[in-house]
Amino acid sequence: MRTEYHAFVDGDVGRCGAILRHVEPRRMRTRTVFRMGEDAPVYLVDHVVDHDGDVRRWRRFTYHAPGSETQHSGTRDADGTVHVDGTVAPELTDTVGGYGEHLVLAQMLADGEDAVSYLQLDESEPGEDAQQAELRRVGVEATELLDGSTVDAERVQLVLDGRSANTHWCIDGVVVKSDWCGAQSFLVDDLDALCAGLDPEVAARIREFAAPPTGS
Q1: Which domain holds residue 96?
Q2: Rounded CA separation 70/20 (Å)
Q3: I want to staple 109 with a disulfide (CB 3.0 to 4.6 A). Which of 39, 80, 142, 173 is the partner?
Q4: Residue 129, burial from CB neighbour count under 10 angstroms (0-12, 13-18, 19+)
């Protein structure tokens, strides 16, 4: 299993949380947690997707946002039939969840492809229409990292229904920075550095997710 730490940065409040991922050959667990200001509630989402080695052939997902009491789950049969919250959803056949974008991008880079197109499902609102998605390489450019240093990184753009959405900067196939249509995230190697200066509840949620499973 590979664990990834990304510091989450909002333009108005600065560093305020993290995006964390446990990546296994056939599963990815993601936690997004942040607090945008002292009076704001803690935003927390846990997501899990199981697949057969390619997230475009996902088998199951769960989405849980405790703060809003939002919870969804989906399954995908071998023939592509999708059920969401126990109800068949034929319009979601051949879709990939938004949280799977990270794995689609990683596979695209590993395969040396210039672009990948797919239909994207929003796991937080699975009743909404799926969107036509395309990840495309834009080229190498200079970009600023969390510590203020500048690196040359390959830019990859997500386009949803013809509109530019998330942007990722990658070095040697690794995402070092992302722009989530305003807020940004930056790859961080050290857990203590990731948690330093954050709201105590947010830091506790980060360490909870990063802790090794009981008995390991």
Answers
A1: 2-210
A2: 20
A3: 173
A4: exposed
* Pairing of β 87-88 and β 163-171: unpaired
Taking the C-alpha atoms of residue 77 and residue 79, their distance in angstroms, rounded to an integer, is: 5
Residue 216 lies in a domain: no
Report the alpha-carbon distance of residue 144 to residue 130 in Å, rounded: 33
66-91 confidence digits (pLDDT tens): 988 899 999 999 998 999 999 999 99
CB 74 within 8 A of CB 82: yes
DSSP letters spanning the chain = -EEEEEEEEETTTEEEEEEEEEEETTEEEEEEEE-SSTTSPPEEEEEEEEESSSGGGEEEEEEEEGGGTEEEEEEE-TT--EEETTEE-GGGTTEEEGGGHHHHHHHHHHHT-SEEEEEEE-TTSTTSPPEEEEEEEEEEEEEE-TTS-EEEEEEEEEEETTEEEEEEEEETTEEEEEEEBTEEEEEES-HHHHHTTS-HHHHHHHHHHHSPPTT-
Q: Are the C-beta atoms of residues 85 and 126 closer than 8 Å to each other?
A: yes
Residue 215 lies inside a defined structural domain of this protein: no
CA angle 48/101/133 to nearest 5° reads 130
Residue 158 lies in a domain: yes
Q: Which residues contact 40 (CB under 8 A, 6 or more apart)?
A: none
**For 134-181, how does the pLDDT look when each residue is reduced to its tens digit (9 = 90+)?**
999 999 999 999 999 999 999 999 999 999 999 999 999 999 999 999
